[in-house]
Amino acid sequence: MNEKKLTSASGIPYTDHEDTKGVGPRGPLLLEDFILHEKLAHFNRERIPERIVHAKGSGAFGTFTVTHDITKYTKAKLFSEVGKQTRILFRFSTVAGERGSADTERDPRGFAMKYYTEDGNWDLVGNNTPIFFIKDAKKFPDFIHTQKRDPFTNCKSATAVWDFWSLCPESLHQVLFVMSDRGTPVGYRHMHGYGSHTFSLINNENEKVWVKFHLRTEQGIKNFTGAEANQMKSVDSDFAQRDLLEAIEKGAFPRWKMYIQVMTLEEAKTHPFNPFDVTKTWSQQAFPLIEVGVAELNENADNYFAQIEQAAFAPAHIVDGIGFSPDKMLQGRILGYTDAQRYRLGANYEQIPVNRCPFAVNNYQRDGHMRVDGNGGRSANYYPNSFSDVRPDMSYVRPADQLDSNVADWFDRNGEGENDHYSQPGIFFREVLDQTGKEHLIENITSAMSGISGPKREEIINRQLCHFFRADISLGMGVAKGLGMDVASLMDKMPRG
Q: Residue 30 is part of a domain; what is its CATH number?
């Protein structure tokens, strides 16, 4: 077997990997030992900044196969014909915890998807819930601050969490999802995924429809109870990572069927609530699921850091035939995610192999930290120019959007027509959860709210209970009793109307 020479990062062979050059066996070290510098300097930089959110995650590669024709809705090449396959990378994650946190924490699960298409990489960056806590991206930093560590105690704060949620009634729908057993899925293979936001599809005639993406697990839904999730933290804090990796290694490849819901532009105009509100779902009776294809994960990363930790996803990355919507959270994420990746990985993060489009990439971007693709060589770095053959392809022009208003203002997220925060949470409690699920939800909420402390404790609890009562009386009663509250007194304090 031919042995490989040990070299520095610049390819210079060296021999003393374990011993530093010094003055005698007991003397000081010499500054000239550059291998010492290289090893320590690289070691100090081995940890890139972890993601602000979704820091703890797992991922794998696979294929997406089209099984049903949706070309009447979209000209996106990955959906161009039945049987077409596209390479994919999926990354799953918890949201609030650091990289060393447990996989079974009560939390939404990130469900980020990268499709390596011939028209560029399409990133569908969603969660295992079809909704979210807030509907305006301006509130996102505040929300995440409540999920992270308190600036005084450096511990997680139930007071901050429930104070924020109680002051943001639009959070109630997602709060019920997360506090139910859906907030503690059994790994990543046994949960659904959602694009969550409303997107648009454009066909070859430039006709547009609004769309929501669903991925439904073929492994079946499985959730831990709160007690089981807490027990697993002490048994295996990396449970979900191990479960996904070992399943794929054994050939038990996890699969999800992709579906879409479609709403026409006219239907959106007359819909009883804002269809671009990410705190709400679309009725599957009114807008039935349309099957599209199957995603299968069948290849583990050879190196976690290179292929999963450095993987960068951004909702801004859409391809021809797929578009955005007026969803305010989506609009904010278009900016926020790409900016986060440039901070975390550098301006040229899309040149990292796992993020690089495997097809042609031509532009006039130059320089920047860690430019590794030749930097355009001698070619012109400006446009228009008389020398380069890189030109816009006008066949990719997107159709103009018809806006419903010419008024620019700060619109109240809880204004008239936007303020029904209780109907869907009530339906979720009454019609989606079975009796056991309802009991677990109330137990989980009671346990979580018991951690509220401080002089505002009663105020925060009463405010949140008002939201629960508005969604469903029995939900509010159950939580109030679990917290040992005087239910009769609470009912007297409830706002009427």
A: 4.10.91.20
